[in-house]
Amino acid sequence: MPMSKVWEIILESFWPLFSKGLLVTIPLTAISFAAALVIAVIVALIQYAKVPVLRQIARFYIWIIRGTPLLVQLFIVFYGLPGLGFHVNAFWAAVFVFSFCEGAYCAETIRGALESVPYGQMDAAYSVGMNFNQAMRRIVLPQAFRNAFPALMNSLISMVKDTSLAANITVQEMFMTGQRIAGRTYQFLAIYIEVAFIYLMFCTILSFVQKKLEKVLGRYENERPL
User: Fold this and answer.
1) I want to staple 174 with a disulfide (CB 3.0 to 4.6 A). Which of 20, 52, 116, 122 is the partner?
2) How far apart are CA 174 and CA 166, in angstroms?
3) Residues 158-204: pLDDT tens digits?
4) Pairwise CA distance, residues 160 & 95, whole Å
5) CB-neighbour burial class of residue 94 (10 A; exposed 0-12, middle 13-18, buried 19+)
6) Are 203 and 157 contacting, i.e. CB atoms less than 8 angstroms apart?
């Protein structure tokens, strides 16, 4: 096929791919990561506070999630649960799996950040009359999140790319759209490179935002009164 025709196909396919990225890939990432952060904070706090039974449940959850492939988890939820009578929409099945999977990894990141805050600060908070919840909310968690921010942003960027796995459970996101266009035009190399380029665009923007926010957090840390 002449190169002019190849370029024509690439240009024509850009908007369908990019729009799927904006309308499906980015929302899937945003919803899943927001839910993952909620899960991660709860699980990390349970471990940090050493709540007896809940701590063991949290460790078991992390062990299961980190020890099984994400793709297998997607298949269990979308293709396996209907056998038990639970039918889940493909998009929300992906949100569920991505949230719980990323939540386990982020929980370990946040737990490490919590433990990096000197415990003497908790003692100081208790000494001025704060309870555990107040000390965590006002003193420990803000510092922990600043420490965990770079790792959490890296997790977000990784999730943008991981959403391509949702195509395997029929979510019509950007990668599935690329597969369909490539199958129709037989320009597999060109289309897949184009898909990769759009993922790169999204991740580059997030990397830029990360650097800007890290500077803001660093400035806040430097200006904070001792």
Assistant:
1) 20
2) 10
3) 999 999 999 999 999 999 999 999 999 999 999 999 999 999 999 99
4) 12
5) buried
6) yes
Determine the Cα–Cα distance for residues 31 and 225; give it in Å rounded to an integer. Answer: 36
3-state secondary structure of 59: helix
Q: What's the Rg (C-alpha) of the chain?
A: 21
Whole-number Å distance between alpha carbons of 131 and 23: 44
- Exposure letters 179-194 (e unless 16+ CB within 10 A, then b): bebbeebebeebbeeb
Residue recorded with tokens 């793709």: 71
pLDDT of 225: 43
Dihedral, CA of residue 131, residue 136, residue 139 and residue 140, to nearest 10: 140
| Residue 212 amino acid letter | K
Residue 118: strand, helix, or coil: coil
Q: To the nearest 10°, report the CA torsion of 182, 187, 189, 192.
A: -30
Is residue 144 within 8 A of residue 37, CB to CB? The reply is no
Structure-block tokens of residue 51: 């709540």
pLDDT at 137: 82
Structure tokens at 27: 């929302």
Residue 62 half-sphere exposure, CB side, CA atoms within 13 Å?
20
User: Which residues does the chain have with pLDDT short of 50?
Assistant: 225-226
